[in-house]
Amino acid sequence: MRVERTPVSVVCPCYNEEGSIARLVAAVADTFGRRGQAWELVLVNDGSRDATWSAISQASAADSRVVGINLSRNFGKEAAMFAGLSQARGEVVVLMDADLQHPVELVPRMIDLLREDGVDQVVARRTREGDGWLRSALSRLYYRIMGKFMDVELRDGVGDFRVLSRRAVDSLLSMRESNRFSKGLFEWIGFETRTIEYRNVVRGTGTSSWSLGSLFRYGMDGFISFSDAPLRLSIHLGLMAVVLGFGYLVWLFVSWIAHGVVAPGYLTTVAAVILFSGVQMVMLGVVGEYIGRIYREVKNRPIYLTAGRVG
Ligand code: UDP
Ligand code: MG
Question: Ligand 1 in contact with 74 (CB < 6 A)?
Fold first, then answer.
């Protein structure tokens, strides 16, 4: 059997995945072993509250190709992926979830596609089977709306399950922003990309850490990270208010000429004050969102901190 020497790194962020680690390691070892492909598995423990870290340590002790990185607390999936990517040594890097929702069997095909076509990214696009209808409908709506306003094109079902060339990984690592929205970052770096489709796998153990609320926040985060449309919207709204206000003024003036002074106007005054102070508050909030992000970025804190390493 021909042994492929250049190792492939598999990077998995792990948060409360104690039940998945052993199966994940076995699946990776099996899939790559069958092809005679050298590999390393980089497992990043993202401040799990269960025994994930000891499961990773055990796996690493049993197989030196398993590398474990223990983050000092829960930094979030994006930071955990960044930590894993920065530790990966392979010429080809696979990024996938630890919960086995990303089928390992697909990876060899993806790697082949990357090598044969000489592209830098191969993404697996999942169908929405097993998702609640509300979640699927909201995601679809999200992609429709965001597609119109964002600097990068997002596609439904395309996530973090992908195979990257060394060049693509280095490009991702060169982007040091602490507010990381990887769906956007993957698109932003560009390079030629191939897509393959797969059927969604329903989660085996544990629960998804995403609630509808956290998904919404994530969506807004991504939107603001890759779009300044809300800021432009405030200019448009402002202009509209000016035009409306001026028109109303002209109308008042004309009716004053025609009918003389008409005193009542309490309702319109109050309505206008409430409406426009409302709009101003919202827009101030929008500006605040961007300033908050600038504040966070400008502090230039590290994206993650490690408390330990095995393997
Ligand atoms: N994850 C992480 N940090 C977090 C939340 C999640 O590293 O704060 C990992 C998790 O262990 C899994 C992946 O990110 O490997 C995807 O998480 P999850 O399965 O909860 O999301 P979903 O599959 O529902 O998108
Ligand atoms: Mg999952």
Answer: yes
Q: Which atom of ligand 1 is nearest to the CA of 97?
A: 15
Distance CA 123, CA 120 (A): 10
Residue of 106, 189, 130, 198 whose CA lies nearest to 158: 198
Distance CA 20, CA 50 (A): 12
Angstrom distance (rounded) from CA 190 to CA 171: 10
User: Contact at 8 Å (CB) between 146 and 187?
Assistant: no
- Name the residue with tokens 């998995």: 12
pLDDT tens digit sequence for 145-202: 877 787 777 777 788 899 999 999 999 999 988 888 888 889 889 898 899 988 776 6
Place of tokens 């966070």: 296
Tokens representing residue 301 in the block:
């804190």
> Which two tokens mark 292?
């908050």
Q: Is the CB of 195 under 6 A from ligand 1?
A: no
Token digits of residue 20: 């998945």
Beta-carbon-side half-sphere exposure of residue 301 (alpha carbons within 13 Å)? 13
**How is residue 28 written in tokens?**
């990776």
Atom of ligand 1 nearest to the CA of 98: 15
Distinct helix (H) and strand (E) counts, the chain? 10, 8
| CB 184 within 8 Å of CB 226 | yes
Q: Among candidates 10, 35, 36, 37, which has minimal Cα distance to 24?
A: 10
Instruction: Judge contact between 13 and 98, C-beta under 8 A.
Output: yes
Tokens of 68: 């474990």
Note the pLDDT tens digit of each residue in 228-260.
Answer: 888 888 888 888 888 888 888 888 888 888 887
CB of 200 sitting under 6 A from ligand 1: no
